[in-house]
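Exercise: predict the structure of this protein bound to zinc ion.
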Amino acid sequence: MIDRLTVLGPGTIMPLPDYGCSGYLLHWKTSEGERPILIDCGPGTLDRLCEHGTPVEAIEVILITHFHVDHVSDLAAVFLSRWLRNLDKGPGAHRLTVIGPVGLADHIATVSKLNQPWISEYEFDIVELGAGSYVFPNRSRYDGLSLDTVPTGHTENSICYRLTDSEGRRFFYSGDTDYNEALLPLADGAELAILECSMPDEKKLPGHLTPRLAGKLAEKSHVRRLLLTHFYEEVLTVDIVTEVRKEYGGEVELAKKLRSYPIS
Ligand SMILES: [Zn+2]
Ligand SMILES: [Zn+2]
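Solution:
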C-alpha cells in the first residue's frame, strides 16, 4: 500500500540552503517491507537518499516527469552507482525500471553514450508513457498499484502522475506545470497532492504555478491535503499559505527537505 512520501528536494536549480532539486520517495509498503519509488531525480538526489538512509539498491522504480536538469540529472549517478555495486546481478537482485514521458529512451541513450562503458553495460527497463491509465510495471512487486498520467504542457512531453493503491489511496504529483485544468481529473480527491509553486503571483513565470494558482487547482480538484514544492527564492519571501488559502479551503503545507508526509 501507499504509506507516505518523503521529500528529498523542495527547491529548484537555483541553489538555496536546505532546499535542493526535485526528488521524492513514495513509500510502498508490503508485508515483506518497503519498496520506495523514486519520483524525479534532480542533482543531489543520490546524496539526499543517502542522508535519508535509503540505499540506492532499495530503489527498483524511478518515475521521471520531464527532462529539465533539475528533475533528471542524477539519473546517470543512480545508474552508475548501481552498476558499480553490481546491483543487477546476484541473489536478490532486482532490475531497475525507469518510467517517464515519451523521449525517455532517447534521453537515456544520450546519457549512456557520454558515460560508456559503465552505463551502457548496465541493463535496465525503460517504460515511456503517454496520457493514460496503467497497471504499475513490475506487477509482482507492486501488486494493486496503478498509475495515471496526463501531459502538463510545461514542456513538449512533460507529464504528471497519479498513483492509486488497491485500497483507493491516491497520491498526485504535478511535476512542473502552469495552471492547466487537464490535471484536475488526476488530482481529484487525492489524499495527498504535491503541486509545484515556483514564484509569487506578481512574478509569475510562464509554465509554472504560483501560490494562488496552485490553490485554485487544489480547490477545483477537491484535493484533501496539499503539499507545495519547487520553490524559487522569490516565492519564499511571501506568505505562501495565506495566498493559497484565498483559493483553497483544505489542509496546506510547504514541503521540507527530508520530511515525510503520511498518505491516508
Ligand atoms: Zn521544468
Ligand atoms: Zn523544475
